[in-house]
Write a structure and sequence with these properties.
alpha+beta; TATA-Binding Protein; five-stranded antiparallel beta sheet; four-stranded antiparallel beta sheet; 7 helices; DUF4124; DUF4124 domain-containing protein; coiled coil
Length: 328
């Protein structure tokens, strides 16, 4: 401190000083900052040479754009979380047990089966009528007469009605498959919620990325994909990435969102991944939000080489390229 005081100019006794570094790495002290260094990182010192304020460098246009993208994705991610929580509340209010879910599923399946049965009855009626009309037309031709255009049109309409009835049955069978799939998903979610509700004390919240560091680079937590097969594979790898790197337990596991609990210890890693429609172009975005504990030690951990390695490995992991976790 004595050496610093000796290095300070005489003006330091009159008020605060500024400290900055030039492009050659030299440190300067003065009661004002040259205009060309005003937007760079600098510090304010009091008359004793103690730093009382640090001013970060002005953000570049690209940094501001990337931050805007981050905010938008975090908002969309939070919307997914809120939507899933609302759906979970409805699910738990609607069903008291798995038996309730199974009964509701079977009730809907029986209703569809009844519709199919009615359609099958109608098909029999159409087929009998069509057969009779075709026999009449054939009899007219055998007798040397030609069926009237109106009669032939009636036969064609019957054929179209039969085709539509078959298509209806196919659609109803597909409806049954969708019902089975939807209720299987609800049942799995119901089991998960009942299991998690006994152990979790508070849901984690999506928030601001606390990794810090320069952002003068492409976003390393956004993976773009297109096509169901490609995106489904990437989503599976994203969930594997989360399991490999998050240190807090999973609190939400849904179709388009997976979230682990909030960080508790200074070296905890909380990760949320979400599958979001790309608003700028066709395709899908898989977004990864990594959080550390909001504490001095937690923030330092988020700036560590280990976390940098984890974030850098996200794109590699989703691309299918082999990568190993940074163990530093």
């Amino acid at each position: 401190m004595v050496a610093l005081a000796l290095a300070l100019p005489a003006q330091s006794s009159a008020g605060r000083l500024y400290k900055w570094t030039d492009e050659e790495g030299r440190i300067h002290y003065a009661d004002s900052i040259p205009p060309e260094y005003v937007k760079q990182e600098h510090s304010k010192l009091d008359e004793r040479g103690i730093v009382v304020d640090r001013i970060d460098a002005a953000k570049t246009k690209q940094q501001l754009q990337l931050e805007a993208i981050q905010r938008r994705l975090q908002q969309e991610q939070q919307a997914l979380i809120d939507q899933q929580k609302a759906a979970d509340r409805v699910l738990l209010r609607t069903f008291r047990s798995e038996d309730d879910i199974i009964m509701a599923r079977d009730g809907q399946l029986r209703a569809v089966d009844l519709t199919i049965l009615m359609t099958q009855t109608n098909i029999k009626r159409i087929k009998n009528s069509l057969l009779e009309m075709q026999q009449n037309a054939a009899a007219l031709e055998l007798s040397g007469e030609t069926p009237s255009p109106d009669y032939l049109a009636q036969i064609d309409r019957k054929r179209q009605a039969l085709k539509a009835a078959y298509q209806s049955i196919v659609k109803r069978e597909q409806d049954k498959n969708r019902i089975r799939t939807a209720f299987a998903r609800d049942q799995a979610r119901f089991r998960e919620l009942k299991h998690l509700s006994a152990s979790q004390s508070k849901d984690g919240e999506a928030g601001t990325d606390k990794t810090g560091g320069t952002q003068e680079r492409p976003l390393n937590n956004v993976f773009e994909c297109s096509g169901n097969d490609s995106c489904n594979s990437a989503w599976s790898r994203a969930k594997r990435f989360l399991r490999n790197h998050a240190t807090t337990p999973v609190k939400m596991l849904a179709t388009n969102i997976v979230m682990t609990g909030p960080p508790v210890d200074d070296h905890d890693i909380s990760i949320t991944i979400s599958r979001i429609r790309n608003p700028d172009k066709k395709g899908t975005v898989i977004f990864m939000d990594l959080q550390c504990k909001d504490s001095p030690a937690g923030n330092a951990f988020c700036n560590s080489k280990k976390i940098t390695g984890v974030k850098r490995g996200f794109i590699e992991a989703l691309s299918g390229r082999p990568t190993s976790p940074d163990k530093q």
